[in-house]
Amino acid sequence: MKDEKARGERLRAIRKKAGYSSAEKFAETHGFSAATVRSAENGNRPLTVRNAKLFATQLGVTWQWLYFGDDKHPEAEYAEAVEYLKTLHPRRRAAILQMLRTEAELAQEDQQHIPESR
């Protein structure tokens, strides 16, 4: 919940800095739901990566900054991957997850076979 409040505060601050006096004005100008923008600003509804990308584009900031508070957050790629996975058919998602498990196992095996340096 703390993260949602912080995201909402960043969204509200950058919206105002961009010259939009209210969530409604911003939403109306860019075709968003006013309720979605208000809820994200208030931290009542989670800001999705998808909406962070849409809002950030219109506000001239990166979605990573809006979502995480900085542009160098390693979890940004993970969040983006999760958003893509959610859009896939369950069978495709399962296949990709199995591929990732296999890759992780192979990487772990590779680490076990690296000789120690002297």
From TrEMBL:
Annotated GO MF terms: DNA binding
Pfam families: HTH_3
Keyword line: Plasmid
Keyword Transmembrane helix: no
Domain HTH cro/C1-type span(s) in chain numbering: 11-66
Protein name per the record: XRE family transcriptional regulator
Organism: Azospirillum argentinense
